[in-house]
Recover the amino acids of this structure.
């Protein structure tokens, strides 16, 4: 799938990959414009081209207490990479337990992540990511199949554009 590019473990705290052309599966150390940051996956053959990180909050109390800090972290991590590597693609997965995320919080979470995932090119805001995926997991180990519901998102967007 990667066209023969090897997948390797990064060397802890190294600013360069262990091989000239490889995908590193974390922790991948990136020194950007804000602070040093470890990402779960990175591709940096000549500087950062792709950085991916996953974020989780595991219960209702954690979501209520730490959600805003997570949003700040997402924006700071994207800024860290984009301010030094403006052509890099930054992506995140946010994983939350489905049973504790109910409306209207679910809609607010989805809208916030959609706003942060709108960087469409080099001229876009540094604090935005190119992609963010919200994954709602269930205690039985499955993932909620239609979350957020694509029909509701489409309807809410069309009502806002009127």
């Amino acid at each position: 799938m990667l066209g023969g590019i090897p997948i390797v473990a990064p060397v802890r705290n190294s600013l360069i990959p262990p091989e000239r052309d490889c995908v590193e599966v974390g922790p991948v150390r990136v020194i950007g414009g804000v602070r040093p940051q470890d990402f779960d996956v990175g591709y940096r053959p000549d500087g950062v081209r792709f950085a991916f990180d996953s974020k989780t909050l595991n219960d209702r109390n954690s979501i209520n207490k730490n959600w805003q800090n997570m949003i700040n972290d997402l924006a700071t991590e994207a800024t860290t990479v984009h301010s030094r590597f403006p052509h890099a693609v930054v992506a995140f997965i946010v994983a939350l337990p489905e049973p504790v995320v109910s409306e209207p919080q679910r809609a607010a979470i989805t809208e916030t992540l959609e706003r942060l995932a709108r960087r469409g090119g080099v001229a876009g805001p540094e604090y935005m990511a190119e992609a963010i995926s919200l994954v709602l997991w269930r205690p039985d180990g499955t993932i909620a199949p239609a979350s957020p519901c694509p029909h509701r998102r489409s309807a809410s967007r069309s009502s806002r554009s009127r």
Summary: The chain has one domain: 7-160. Residues 45 and 98 are 37 Å apart (CA to CA). The chain has a mean pLDDT of 89.
